[in-house]
Amino acid sequence: MDECSVARGPGCGTDGPPRTAGADSAAAERVSRLLSGPSGLGTSAARILDALRTAPPPPSAPAPATPEPDVLAPDALAPESPEPAVPEPEAALPVLPTPLPSPTRLGGLFSPGYAEREWGDGSFPPLYCPLTARIDDDLARVVNDRLVEWAGEVGIYADQLDRFRDTGFGRLAVLAHPETDDVDALLLAAKMNAAWWACDDYYADESDLGATPTELPPRLALVMSAMDPPPDAGGYSLRLDEAVRSDPVLVALRSATAHLKRHSGPSQLMRILNTTFQMYVSWTAYAAWRHLGELPPVWRYLAARQHDSFYTSMTLIDVVGGYQLDADLFYEPRVHRAVMQAGTASVIVNDLHSVEREAADDLPDCNVVLLIAEEEGCPLEDAVRTAVAMHNDFVHGFEDSQRELAAVPSAELQRFLLGVQSWMGGCLEWHGASDRYK
Prior knowledge:
Layout: H1 21-36, H2 43-54, H3 74-77, H4 89-92, E1 114-117, E2 127-130, H5 137-154, H6 161-167, H7 169-176, H8 183-205, H9 216-227, H10 235-245, H11 248-263, H12 266-292, H13 298-305, H14 311-314, H15 317-321, H16 327-330, H17 333-359, H18 368-376, H19 380-405, H20 411-433
Antiparallel strand pairs: 1-2
Helix pairs in contact: 1-2, 5-7, 5-8, 7-8, 7-20, 8-11, 9-11, 9-12, 17-19, 17-20, 18-19
Region (Disordered): 1-90
Cofactor: Mg(2+)
Keywords: Lyase, Magnesium, Metal-binding
């Protein structure tokens, strides 16, 4: 495979001699095989780029020497053919069907659909959300037991392991990643989420666990070095290692990242690390507001919250599923917007279930329900209804984005978007059952 099949840029376009009708047919056949065949580690995205690179130029102009069109642009996927006898482009680029094949789960992938779902005690308006794709309590118990064993080894929640077990981060992984039955892959998701939550609890949120706003920024800087070690600096690096080994939260994050490295490719690893570090910028904003005793306006909270959402957890979807979504597809603006919509919707679910717990803290967290009630001067019940409506709008937005992107001929992208849908449904299921929110 040449460099142009994995990285786009000037010179990787359509330069070359004119194509024939036979070549057009061959290109269409290649894309058709892509849509019907199995997917591997990023191969579909690379083949799409290759197909676009070799597609014939319009008859009225020679092939351009400028960079290729956006990988998701419809006119880039279906150029006009100079030969009337050639089938219409739509025939060569059918919409991907569901279910899609999955190499790690019997029965493959499927969409259970969307519905209005009751939550809490059922007294508030329902949350419009995907239905839960899989509930497998036996598998969840296996993953959760291994997670609790790991937590004991790294030292997080050392005096609260029974409570940690009942929180059920292993069950969250099974609910949110229905594409696979692989226990080790699901354990990876459980470890990463548990480590992120431990960092949040010990450093940012829970005063009784030692969280203080003024210590948060330097602690997060150390977290980043624990997950992504800096270049060796001799004796200074030894002191860094000692600091990491002395803090159970840092040990957990380093251990979970090591597990991640066994399952991910380089771009997947850096995607997850950089998204984590992006999330920490929002945490420092919350810490400043808490330290100053200020409540941010709702718009400002939401601006920070989009980068501190379950979008971070969703970056694991293809890693856990055993495939790779090409970076150019993951970061394409429409895909990015869709995943951000889903991540923000899911974190509003967290805010809704956390209101009572967070309001009771000596230094309350920012919470969209509490902020709406304060800003609007309305009862908490009205603020909850406003937050529910906001959540539902985000989910409808994701559903619209998913429908728009369904025509993109990438099996990996369709699997990933279906994984995001499944994550939202599993997230709501987990929040409704976890002892953490009772």
